[in-house]
Design brief:
TTC7_N, elongated, Serine Threonine Protein Phosphatase 5, Tetratricopeptide repeat, TPR repeat, single chain, Endocytosis_PI4K-reg_protein, mainly alpha, Tetratricopeptide repeat protein 7B, 39 helices
Length: 816
């Protein structure tokens, strides 16, 4: 109120002004009546204004200005309207309250849904021509709300102008109103903090809160995205108050969402870092909020930095507001706080996964679990973050907890099954989770991948067992499950692929080729299907066609080391060692591109804290010429390997390479492949050098011991070769190539009975290998059992045409 004369009732006026600032409207009305009684001639106009203001604000506190309340407001605010209308005339102008009366009348009419009349009062108040000057706390709020109401009225009224110029003019006016409302609203809240208003009376009101959030949204609506971003930044840079803490969370989240969804790196502009000069002082505008400033504040330099910074700020605010109590009286507050936090975490998930900051996401979910008891969404996201981080065992435990919260969700069971199959080597556990998913899908009467996952589980169990009866039993179950999966969804390329693989593992080459062709017709660009197709062609005595398939596949998937591995073996098989050597060199280059950044500078402590498989466990599951890349070794083998792993940990000369151990195991395989190629080229020294390089990664590998024995065989160093093969068998009793090579060495050293024992053990583990039967035939011939020798040779001849260049089990599991 400006230009108001003061007299002996100045004390009452001061109390009234204080009550207006604190929103004590009943007291304001009482004091206004008292003021009127004390001096009716001088204060009648002021008293009418205060009573009208008090009745308006009291009503709106109980009935917010929303559309559902418009009809009721027209009758409920009639008395307040009468009081305010009384002071808009000459007497009000003389008393200096007519302007405020018009502004409050505009607010009243807006609460009744009368936008045209509301805008007319702003014209009468000459709102657009007001000059900046010092205002009281209450006047600041009235002015901020006035700009907000004018903007909202213009927006609700719609763009009635027919010309583009009129529309543009109206849009600009609307934006200006919301921006001024935001600036004045923030300034009002800052001044409110300075005035030390009681916390229970601190409230910006629905109109002001709407305007603060509406300003950037309107800019986005009108296609001014960069201006909207700057408006968000400006509001977030305003000095925080106790009232704006929840608003700050909303603004930070909204800006992060805008940056994630609407901004690309090409149009992004980082925020400016304004550092005040030492010599010049820029005066602050009176109607602008105070901003943070300083020399040491962090300023984001790019889109990822700003987005993640905003989300971390929002997360901090959300965690601070979290309700830990599980009491029913806090149910609504807990639900509201959790909703805010979940929205922030969803955006943080998108941002961190996009820019490879999974560790940051995991830390955030660790904090979220403290107030997310029983909230399946948070637990689900937490388990996914663990899986992305490579902490697969922890991820499985988190998925189990999540599954308890949503017992009918089969997706969680499928995720658990996939982790067990693909990462943890827990085949039977994976089969259990697949069966759980299958049971839930049956209850829900909807088909899914559960049937396929059951088939994969049975297939893995069959491949990993050494007992013929069990292998046949689980193989039959795998066939039944996979055939049913194909029937459920005939267009699923993955079901056809695994059915083809099952036929291949049983050496039904014709049937396998039929189903793999169907799989490729459903999805031609599927690396594992192309891999299997190439191996089936080699088993069908068509190695040159297989090489063409693999070469085309490598063109399509140039970074697929599994396909390149097959390509090198095919080239070696076709006696083209020079080309195979070039392929291996390419594999090393690709490995460097894919994994070098992961292993360089990696902290050992990080790996120790990881619950991924140990280097030995990972190595034992890697594919080689006779062991599956997707199946666990037998129980006896795992016990031997565990003992050797413990021995390895005691060797002071060995420590695992820093970084993801799976990457090092891939490199180890490439070194051994290179050694094989050099040996075929008649270069044992280079082969031994490759073996030494592989030993630097993991010296107790049975594959390294076997390959070293092959070099000794080439050099006719039979006793050394025997020791190497014996070491390899000790490390992994299921390594059939080492068993067969040990038997052949015993044979050459004149120990045919030991040779017979070793080779028969190999034949029991892999009865489909023609090389093993041929070696056994030579041993039986030496022993004088010519009938047995003839039978062995006949078996080798029978198996040889259907033997692939590499075992079918060397194809890695795929779920894509």
């Amino acid at each position: 109120m400006t230009g108001r004369n003061r007299n002996t009732n100045g004390k009452i006026e001061a109390i009234i002004e204080s009550c207006r600032s604190e929103g004590k409207w009943k007291r304001v009305i009482e004091l206004a009546e008292e003021l009127k009684i004390g001096s009716p001639s001088n204060y009648e106009c002021l008293s009418n204004f205060l009573v009208g203001e008090g009745k308006l604000e009291s009503y709106l506190e109980e009935h917010p200005p929303i559309e559902s309340n418009f009809t009721k407001a027209k009758s409920g605010l009639q008395e307040a309207k009468n009081y305010l209308t009384l002071v808009t005339g000459e007497s009000g102008r003389r008393a200096g309250i007519a302007l405020d009366a018009h502004l409050l009348l505009a607010k009243l009419l807006y609460a009744c849904g009368q936008y045209e009349e509301s805008l007319e009062n702003f014209v009468k108040a000459e709102l657009n021509s007001l000059s900046e000057k010092e205002l009281t706390l209450r006047s600041l709020k009235i002015l901020a709300e006035s700009y907000a109401i004018k903007g909202l009225s213009l927006e609700n009224q719609g763009l009635k102008g027919t010309s583009k110029f009129k529309q543009s003019e109206r849009e600009a006016e609307m934006v200006t109103c919301f921006e001024r409302a935001a600036d004045l609203g923030l300034l009002y809240l800052q001044e409110q903090d300075l005035a030390d208003i009681a916390s229970e009376t601190r409230c910006m009101g629905a109109i002001l809160e709407t305007a603060l959030q509406r300003a950037p949204i309107v800019l986005i609506k009108f296609g001014r995205l960069l201006d909207a971003i700057e408006r968000y930044r400006s509001m977030l840079n305003a000095v925080e108050t106790k009232t704006t803490q929840s608003l700050r969370l909303t603004l930070a989240r909204q800006l992060a969402e805008v940056l994630l969804r609407g901004v690309s790196g090409t149009i992004y502009t980082p925020p400016n870092k304004c550092v005040p000069s030492k010599n010049t002082a820029t005066p602050r505008k009176l109607w602008k909020p105070k901003k943070y400033s300083g020399r040491n504040y962090f300023t984001p330099k790019n889109l990822p930095e700003e987005t993640i910074l905003l989300l971390l700020i929002a997360e901090t605010l959300a965690v601070r507001d979290a309700v830990l109590s599980q009491s029913t009286e806090f149910r609504v507050a807990r639900s509201h706080a959790l909703g805010n936090a979940a929205a922030v975490y969803d955006l943080l998930t998108l941002a961190t996964m996009r820019w490879g900051q999974v560790g940051l996401l995991h830390e955030s979910f660790e904090k979220a679990l403290k107030f997310s008891f029983g909230e399946q969404h948070i637990w689900r996201q937490y388990s996914f973050s663990l899986a992305s981080l490579g902490r697969h065992a922890h991820a499985l435990r988190a998925l189990k907890e999540t599954s308890k919260l949503v017992p009918q969700d089969s997706v969680l069971c499928l995720m658990s099954s996939r982790l067990c199959y693909e990462e943890l080597g827990l085949t039977k556990d994976g089969l259990y989770w697949a069966q759980q998913a299958q049971n839930k899908d049956i209850k829900g009467l909807r088909p899914s991948r559960a049937q396929l996952y059951v088939g994969i589980g049975y297939q893995q169990v069959a491949a990993s067992t050494n007992l013929k009866s069990q292998k046949e039993h689980y193989g039959k179950l795998a066939f039944e499950a996979l055939e049913k999966a194909v029937q459920i969804d005939p267009n699923d390329h993955l079901s056809e692929y695994y059915l083809a693989l099952q036929h291949a593992m049983n050496y039904n080459i014709i049937d396998a080729l039929y189903h793999i062709r169907i799989a490729l017709s459903l999805r031609a660009e599927h690396a594992s299907s192309l891999h299997l197709f190439a191996l089936l062609l080699t088993a069908n005595r068509r190695p040159k066609e297989a090489l063409l398939v693999v070469e085309d596949a490598c063109d399509e998937f140039p970074e697929n080391l599994h396909l390149l591995h097959v390509k090198a073996y095919l080239e070696l098989h076709l006696h083209d060692a020079t080309t195979a050597l070039a392929t291996v060199q390419k594999m090393f280059l690709i490995w460097r591109e894919l994994y070098e950044s992961q292993v360089t500078g990696f902290e050992n402590e990080t790996e120790k804290n990881s619950d991924t498989k140990s280097i030995f466990q990972m190595h034992s599951a890697q594919s080689d010429k006779d062991t599956s890349s997707v199946h666990a070794a037998s129980l006896a083998a795992s016990r031997v390997e565990q003992a050797l792993s413990e021995a390895a940990s005691s060797l002071s000369s060995f420590s695992p390479r820093p970084g993801p151990q799976g990457a090092w195991m891939i490199q180890l395989k490439v070194w051994l492949l290179l050694a094989d190629i050099y040996l075929s080229m008649g270069q044992p020294n280079e082969a031994m050098f490759c073996i030494q390089e592989a030993s630097q990664i993991y010296p107790l590998s049975h594959q390294i011991m076997y390959m070293r024995g092959q070099v000794h065989v080439y050099l006719c160093q039979w006793h050394d070769a025997k020791q190497c093969f014996l070491n390899a068998v000790s490390a992994n009793p299921c390594h059939t190539e080492a068993l067969c090579a040990l038997g052949e060495t015993h044979h050459i050293l004149g120990e045919p009975r030991l040779a017979e024992k070793m080779i028969k053990d190999a034949a029991r583990l892999d009865p489909n290998s023609p090389n093993i039967w041929y070696s056994l035939g030579k041993v039986m011939e030496t022993l004088g059992d010519h009938q047995a020798a003839a039978d062995c040779m006949a078996t080798a001849l029978q198996l040889e045409p259907s033997c692939p260049v590499l075992p079918f089990t060397t194809i890695a599991l795929t779920f894509e």
